[in-house]
Amino acid sequence: MTLLQAVLIALFAYLAWIATPWLGGQGIAYHVFGKPLVAGLIVGIIMGDVVSGVIIGATINALYVGAVTPGGAMSSDINFAGYVGTALALSTGVSAEMAVSIAVPLGLIGTFVWQFFATVNSFLVHKTDKYAAEGDVTKLTFMTLGLPQLLALVLRFVPAFMVLYFGASAGQNLVQFIPEWLTNILTVVGGMLPALGMAVLLKMLLSTRSLLGYFLVGFILIAALNLPIFTVALAGIALALISTLYKSNDREEAYDE
Amino acid sequence: MSEKKIQSEVTKKDIYKVGLRWLISNTSAWNWERMQNVAFAWSMVPVFKRTCKTKEEMGKSLSRHMSFFNTEPTIGIPIVGAVAAMEVQKSKGEDIPDDVINAIKSGLMGPMAALGDSLFASTGNALLLSFGMGLALEGNILGPIIFMLVWTAITICFSMWGIQFGYREGTRIMDSEIFSSAMIKKATAFLSILGLTVVGGLSAQFVSLSTKISWTNGESTTQLQTIFDGLMPKLLPFAIVMITWYLHDKKNVSVLKLLLLLIVIGTVGSLLHIF
Fold first, then answer.
1. Which stretch of DSSP H or E encloses residue B50?
2. How far apart are the C-alpha atoms of A181 and A13, rounded to whole Å?
3. Partner-chain contact B205 A228, CB within 8 Å
4. Which residue, among B199, B129, B230, B226, has the nearest Cα to A219 in the 3D structure?
5. Within a 10 A sphere around the Cβ of A133, how many other Cβ atoms?
6. pTM of this structure
7. Residues of A numbered 58-97 whose beta carbons fall under 8 angstroms of chain B's beta carbons: which are they?
8. ipTM computed for the complex
9. CB atoms within 10 A of CB A203
10. Residue of A26, A216, A250 to mutate for B, most B C-beta atoms under 10 A
């Protein structure tokens, strides 16, 4: 990995963070650019292998597809896993499943960065109280976008750059010496971990256990029939329409009687 | 100073500015103590610049919004608009006590967070994301590009509509029809069914696990995986998703513990040549 590539990717690891405003804030930076799927595209462009980048990004994303930030508690730092994980996988040439195994510890490191950031901000907010009470708009702006962002830039850029610039070359040498049993472990674990993302989504969506039937239908449509995901979504819309319309017709009839 | 210059009318453009400020800043000074409070106060500045005559007034107004605030920022943007409307009314001499403004903020942020997290940020985003991931897995770069364009457009359009909607509703936002529970219930039911079907498909697509167990009976070797495939393709991925969900949802096992559990099962299984 060249110095320029490492700098660019580390910069995106900052820009696509949940707390960074410059790409559109949490709503766009985090929910669009922060997703490993998009990270795969951007890293792929920077490193000159777009198709591999996109495939690896999508595979890493499967692990985190259910991750939201309820109350700000992040179980994993998605975009650190996405940007740094895809870049390391591309530069070492490992498989997409192994990339998932690389991404997991990276995502956990990133979580500590968020916790540290929110903790420092908890001290800063008292200073902000003072400026707000004085009606000093310039200083309030500095406490909203200036100081926390300087901190965020350091907290995001530096670790990403270090891992990329020094990790990639070390990783390239390491990969040659990885024994087959370890490759097998990383591949098996990488294949299993997306189940966690699915379980988190399931918990969120399943209000009653009877709804599991819809999950089973979607599973069979791909496992047995190998339909494209778009077709599965259409089938889901059909099922949702039937179910919700059926229920509202029911109610109207009840009123008629 | 002339009277006219002191207090001028808040324009539609000012409200868009408030919305834009909220969109970019809502998490930028996020803290454990009061979460999104700094962003809330900072977002109100375009309104306060019109309504506040003195620096003291500005200080009072800003301090009012340094209290605790946390919601799903995109779906919750009408709250910001409604508070802006209340601030304008207040500056025009209407009697709106601070308590009422705070009650509306804290009364709405919970429901909006629940709605936003479960339907918008998770299900909605995951639906589009999974569509993009499906394409990407086939090596199609349109996967991430379509996801990027569509979700960015949704977020910007909703934010800009939501901030004006909240501003128009003002104090009425509490009993606004959009948040009536019947409508939310219907939308939730629709999106959960759609979401569950897609998550089922995604599980089949992204989770992979197969067993290497086999036994020899006389001359023929039987592969356990072949028997599984005869029952249902991807039986093991299905089982692992169900077990993980059961432990997470019904036994309240945390995500971190489940992560470790899956790593241990995978490692041991791989070393014992089960997987």
1. helix B45-51
2. 32
3. no
4. B199
5. 15
6. 0.81
7. 58-59, 61-62, 65-66, 68-72, 75-76, 97
8. 0.81
9. 17
10. A26
Q: Do A229 and B131 touch (CB under 8 A)?
A: yes
Q: Give bridge partners of residue B222 from the DSSP assignment.
A: B215
DSSP label at B171? Answer: G
In sequence order, what are the residues at sequence separation of 6 or more whose Cβ sits closer than 8 angstroms to the Cβ of residue A143?
A124, A127, A128, A131, B29, B38
Residues, chain B: 275
Does B57 contact A at CB distance below 8 Å? yes
What does the block give as tokens for B124? Answer: 């909605």
Which one-letter amino acid corresponds to residue A203?
Answer: K
Q: How far is CA A187 from the centre of its chain?
A: 20
Chain position carrying tokens 């530096």: A158
Q: Going residue by residue through chain A (257 aa), what tens digit of pLDDT does each one get?
A: 899 999 999 999 999 998 999 999 999 999 999 999 999 999 999 999 999 999 999 988 887 876 555 334 455 688 888 999 999 999 888 888 788 888 888 887 777 888 889 899 999 999 999 999 999 999 999 999 999 999 999 999 999 999 899 887 777 777 777 788 888 888 888 888 888 888 888 887 887 888 899 999 999 999 999 888 778 889 999 999 998 877 665 555 544 44
Q: So where are chain A's domains?
A: 3-205, 207-257
